[in-house]
Design a protein that fits this description.
single chain; mainly alpha; two-stranded antiparallel sheet; two-stranded parallel ribbon; 70% helix
Length: 268
């Protein structure tokens, strides 16, 4: 077991990164680097003691060509191994600084609530797993907010919402809340991501209760539907079930549920 120099947690010394904060295991990196250096030294010693029969071939024209070719290939292999070892070592030594830069950039995106920007940044820089898992969770937790904003825009403009739009929103938001509960229960958060995800959960729940007027019983019904329709590919039927579960409360809240074929006009 070794102690992480970044977060102080203890973990198996064979792991390349700390499983809690994602910091590089520099001791392992150093050992691998030394192993590569020793391999280079071994190959160098082999180069200095090539088989005698090759040396004897030097007196023959075709032997010279063969010997030069063998030596060239061997030298290129040694040099290549050395370059890879040094570049790998430098990259791993610099990794903590680059990691900190990425984390600070992601923190700024979280502060700005630019959740799409989080995913774009992570994809562009290939940042997945380890300390970045926290930001992946934030992005996925925020995904249902798209449906929230779409519904809110329609209600504000027209006092109505299309049936399919409402069905999508009820399903995605209720599933999103359940997914967030699982994230908070099983995830590892060291940079305050749990607080951000909790605030997203509150926003999703507020949409169901304040914006749509659903009761606690309605929401429990939605949760039950999430389990019942898990894996279903009959998306139209699934949306219809969610709409019917919330229809009475939504209409009692003063929101008209319009058919998908209807063209919405300004709210009265």
């Amino acid at each position: 077991m070794i102690k992480c120099e970044n977060c102080g947690a203890w973990y198996e010394e064979t792991l390349r990164q700390c499983p809690y904060c994602g910091a590089e295991n520099l001791e392992l990196t150093e050992r691998e680097y030394q192993g590569r250096i020793q391999d280079i030294e071994k190959k160098t010693r082999q180069l200095s003691s090539l088989p005698a029969q090759l040396v004897r071939l030097w007196g023959k024209r075709w032997g010279k060509v063969l010997l030069i070719a063998v030596m060239a290939v061997f030298v290129i292999g040694v040099v290549g191994a050395g370059v890879r070892a040094v570049s790998g070592y430098i990259a791993n030594v610099q990794a903590p600084a680059r990691q900190q830069e990425h984390l600070e950039a992601l923190d700024l995106l979280v502060e700005a609530e630019d959740y799409e920007g989080i995913w774009d940044y992570m994809s562009e820089n290939d940042l997945f797993g380890g300390p970045y898992e926290e930001y992946s969770n934030i992005y996925f937790a925020s995904y249902p907010l798209y449906y929230v904003e779409e519904c809110r825009g329609l209600i504000e403009s027209y006092g109505a919402v299309w049936e399919s739009t409402l069905g999508f929103a009820l399903e995605e938001v209720s599933r999103g809340i359940l997914d967030i509960d699982e994230m908070l229960e099983t995830g590892s958060f060291v940079r305050g991501g749990d607080e951000v995800i909790s605030s997203i959960r509150e926003e999703l729940l507020s949409f169901l209760t304040t914006d749509l007027g659903l009761s606690d019983a309605d929401i429990e019904t939605l949760y039950d539907l999430c389990a019942e329709t898990e894996g279903s590919e009959d998306y139209e039927a699934t949306r219809a079930l969610f709409v019917e579960a919330g229809r009475a409360s939504v209409e009692n809240h003063g929101i008209r549920i319009a058919s998908d074929e209807e063209e919405l006009g300004p709210a009265a």
